[in-house]
Amino acid sequence: MSKAPPVNIRRLGPDDASAFRVLRLRGLTDHPDAFTSTAKDWDLPLEAYIERIEAGHVIGAFEPASGELLGHVFLPTHLATGIKTRHKCEVWSVYVVPEARGRGIAEAMLTHVIALARSLGFSWLKLQVGEHNAPARQTYERLGFEVYGREEDYLRLPDGRSINELMMQLRL
Question: What is the pTM assigned to this prediction?
Answer without folding.
Answer: 0.92
